[in-house]
């Protein structure tokens, strides 16, 4: 008889544990997908800016007869960096992203509309665009794009990083997690 009581008690605890785990998993999945959807919108804005910049730099080079392919790419990277570095994107779309209308705005917009800051970095062999989208109180979606050479690639960027990262260290909560009911 005692074995049946203990078995029943374990089953109650395991089902509570499963429900708690399932609820937390669903919450984390929902937060990831919401952050991912927002990041996709922001990447869409960045793609538009890269497209418009390649057109403007390409047409300026052809009209001024700039010699040297390296100069064209350097001008492109400079123009992209000028347009994006420190910009706040909202993922709301933009008809003319380079003018700051629509999705690109000044730094004051971060507090009002929840925009994310874009950072551009140049290393020896690549130009990176990065931003983070909050997923929940403790995590954010980190996105890093590597800008490709618009003259030789059919894409303006490649996704280098798309992952959830912790923004703060995990700490044990003050109250214990009640997984097993006390009888």
Task: Walk me through what this model shows.
With 183 residues, the protein is α+β, with helices and mostly antiparallel strands. It has one domain. Helices cover 46% and strands 20% of the residues. The protein has three helices and seven strands, in the order H-H-E-E-H-E-E-E-E-E. A four-stranded antiparallel beta sheet has the order 4-5-6-7, covered by helices on one side. A three-stranded antiparallel beta sheet has the order 2-1-3, with no helix packed on it. A hairpin with a 4-residue loop joins strand 5 (127-134) and strand 6. Helix 1 crosses helix 2 (69-84). The model is unreliable at 94-112 (pLDDT under 50).
Low-pLDDT ranges: 94-112
What average pLDDT do the residues reach? Answer: 79
Distance between the termini: 17 Å
Counting DSSP E segments of at least 2 residues, the number of strands comes to: 7
SS-based class:
alpha+beta
Counting DSSP H or I runs of 4 or more residues, the number of helices is 3
Radius of gyration: 24 Å
Characterize the largest beta sheet: strand count, sense, and whether it forms a barrel. 4 strands, antiparallel
Name the overall outline. elongated
For the largest sheet, list the strands in their spatial order. 4-5-6-7
Helical residue percent?
40-55%
């Amino acid at each position: 008889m005692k074995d049946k009581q203990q078995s029943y008690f374990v089953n109650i605890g395991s089902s509570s544990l499963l429900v708690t785990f399932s609820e937390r998993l669903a919450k984390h999945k929902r937060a990831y997908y919401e952050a991912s959807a927002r990041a996709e919108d922001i990447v869409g804005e960045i793609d538009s800016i890269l497209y418009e910049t390649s057109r403007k730099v390409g047409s300026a080079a052809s009209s001024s007869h700039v010699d040297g392919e390296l100069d064209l790419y350097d001008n492109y990277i400079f123009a992209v960096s000028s347009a994006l570095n420190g910009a706040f994107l909202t993922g709301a779309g933009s008809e003319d992203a380079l003018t700051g209308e629509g999705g690109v705005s000044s730094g004051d917009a971060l507090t009002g509309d929840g925009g994310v800051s874009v950072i551009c970095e140049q290393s020896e062999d690549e130009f990176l665009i990065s931003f983070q989208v909050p997923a929940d109180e403790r995590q954010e979606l980190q996105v890093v794009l590597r800008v490709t050479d618009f003259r030789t690639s059919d894409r303006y960027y490649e996704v280098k990083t798309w992952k959830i990262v912790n923004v703060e260290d995990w700490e044990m909560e003050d109250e214990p997690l009640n997984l097993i009911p006390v009888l």
